[in-house]
Amino acid sequence: MTQLEYAKKGIITEEMRRVAADEKVTVEFIISKMAAGEIVITKNKNHSKVKPTGIGAGLKTKVNANIGSSQDVCDIKMELEKLELCVKHGADAVMDLSTGGDIREIRKKIVEASPVPIGTVPIYQTMVDIKRDGRGLKEMTGDDLFKTIEEHGEQGVDFITVHCGITKNTVNELLQQGRLLNIVSRGGSMHAAWILNNEKENPLFEQYDRLLDIAYKYDMTLSLGDGMRPGCLSDATDRAQIHELISLGALAKRAYDKNVQVMIEGPGHMPLNQIAMNMQIQKKLCNNAPFYVLGPLVTDIAPGYDHITAAIGGALAAASGADFLCYVTAAEHLKLPGAEEVKEGVIVSRIAAHAADIAKGIPGAIEWDNKMAEARKKLDWDAQIKLAINPERAKKMRESSRPAAEDVCTMCGELCAIKEMNTALQNRVLDNHKKK
Amino acid sequence: MTQLEYAKKGIITEEMRRVAADEKVTVEFIISKMAAGEIVITKNKNHSKVKPTGIGAGLKTKVNANIGSSQDVCDIKMELEKLELCVKHGADAVMDLSTGGDIREIRKKIVEASPVPIGTVPIYQTMVDIKRDGRGLKEMTGDDLFKTIEEHGEQGVDFITVHCGITKNTVNELLQQGRLLNIVSRGGSMHAAWILNNEKENPLFEQYDRLLDIAYKYDMTLSLGDGMRPGCLSDATDRAQIHELISLGALAKRAYDKNVQVMIEGPGHMPLNQIAMNMQIQKKLCNNAPFYVLGPLVTDIAPGYDHITAAIGGALAAASGADFLCYVTAAEHLKLPGAEEVKEGVIVSRIAAHAADIAKGIPGAIEWDNKMAEARKKLDWDAQIKLAINPERAKKMRESSRPAAEDVCTMCGELCAIKEMNTALQNRVLDNHKKK
User: Fold this and answer.
1) Cys-Cys link to A101, which of A74, A173, A415, B356 (CB 3.0-4.6 A)?
2) CA proximity to B195, closest of B216, B178, B174, B215
3) Taking the complete model, does pTM exceed 0.90, yes or no?
4) Contact B351, B91 (CB under 8 A)
5) Do residue A380 and residue A355 come from a single domain?
6) Are A7 and A61 within one domain?
7) Is residue A436 very low, low, confident or very high in pLDDT (cuts 50, 70, 90)?
8) Residues B238 and B253 in one domain
9) What ipTM does this complex have?
10) For residue A368, which residues of chain B lie inside 8 Å, CB to CB?
11) Chain-centre distance of CA A387, in angstroms?
């Protein structure tokens, strides 16, 4: 049985208890939201050591970090180092998107080493395998895809991105409408190109029940990919994107009915003023299934800073209902991220998620900020550094510029507003005391 | 006459023409919004070389960068270097907040060297002068303050922050209500401490007409400071903050009536879900005067990353009506920023402003993004780098990791989605052609 099936039957599992404890909510809340399809617990039955992680309504916004080799940059040691950095800096999940080197071996090592859920995009491996066989994309078969998916399930992958919504219909919608930047999703473009070349239907759509059977077997959560996600601001919220979202809603319902856990992926590049609306329409069309967004990036003009364009969009998206943020690194649009960019990407994405959690009133979120405010009022620098999301960085920065007086910083020195007010209010208390 | 006075009389000035051209709007739009008090042009009559800069409704969101020495770190060369970096990277205005060394000399050099408007907070200099005289804050007089303000006007400062809204009433509101972090505005804390120590009214409030006369004389824009801005998320949108805002609205009206250009300063630290509402209430209470915000910072727990917490809040604030963003650097809450932090602060704040301009539909904003999208579609890397907000950084990142094929990047290599779709669509066109 899957976690969803247990929830529907009212049976509380150990996984649900652990998620409830982590999230500071009742297990009754967890099971009722799971039974409604609004929370998933990503944990493959074969991934024994993984921490069961709840994603969805009323829970802390989760952060995913993408790692993995590419055809140009392939170093298994570096990928394991990235995994370690992701976990150390608080990523809730990691996707291994390797496309270079011995992909199976890299994934095996990552799944084994990871205490957090691991996601993949099986079509990447399928494509690499086909090319190594000397076949072209056009020759890919449904069997190729399902064979890879089964392998990922067997290996213990906790969630997979599957682009079931790229269909002949959505591709036609795209062609008729036109777009500045067509498709920027890798998996999406592979399926679309396959459909265009073969004039056939997407096997993941046509044989969706076969996919559901595999996912059910391993309790592998399906993450329905948004192959039509906009790749630039001007393509956002167009007919191709929403057409696909409608399909994803219907497919999510079919997964739910077959007791397969499911979440939906979302944009992408998007003007800030369209983000809240996109979160609402996704939740509505997909029966409130958990929403997993990449960005959204609120401008296209900042390569080198896309961890920040994504943090702006991600904070707003999560505050408007998104449950799971896929980080974007500073290297996006330029190169495969290195270890430092991965680390910073996780931290910045966690900042966005936390800001959203405060806005959503998630239990425990604002308490962290209140502790920082108290440390600031007391001019307690050790506490401020300990409470910082990245204490190493805060400490290094402060130490690089020491003030003459230990209780302030070199920005304001003795003109510190907090110190000024602490003194003024203390004097007032003393004055009032004397008057009495 | 001030620019506001000309606008009210329907006289188009050279400054208005230049602003209209820069903003790609008609001069009629500028003059009508100026006459309504919804746009200011910051340009002191004595600052001849400065570019007249429009701030307000319907215009590009502007970015201010704070520079200046502190008591712990004072290096005039470094401050001029910071100014140069600010201008190079697109800051629309710079505030010199120097509190260390020869403040007059630093300001003189900065005003002379700057092509963008310069702002100051005169009470900082007043405080430093008083301490050098051997007096305490309590001994400060109204004359001390007005003497400094006159000096700044004479020197060519284009806008000044004045904390006229810190009054006996607002301070009482603060004391009665209580706060986690009292006052974090430096100028605000000085005025509040002075009021508490002397049990007298704020001279800037009591002798407000004297302030207006000086501002009028130089056409120096008043930026009504928000001394009660929240210093942590839990203090946001409380009675003290809104009480002060009500006063600022009334004071803005008095300035407008006396033909003094005026804008309003705003928070601060603030949960994401309170930002839009704060922009609306400011615009309503202050007759749509331009709104100048510091941040808002959407979480307190990220010292070392406050350029990012501010970019998240700033983008949302500007999209919701704020006209002018004061940057925050990564050094905030830790130390006086150095040159690199200043530079990055400007760039990140410009990203936030630009994202907001797209959302607001500011003329010309989305075109930049569309050009980037076109360059990406063509896999034209030179164009992508040229169009990047920081071409140096984009170039360096790409060059640090070269792909085997020149037209892609090391993230996806030959699995590039854009390339895949370009090929698939080209094949389709060829197929269709053959069929015909």
Assistant:
1) A74
2) B174
3) yes
4) no
5) no
6) yes
7) low
8) yes
9) 0.96
10) 300-301
11) 24
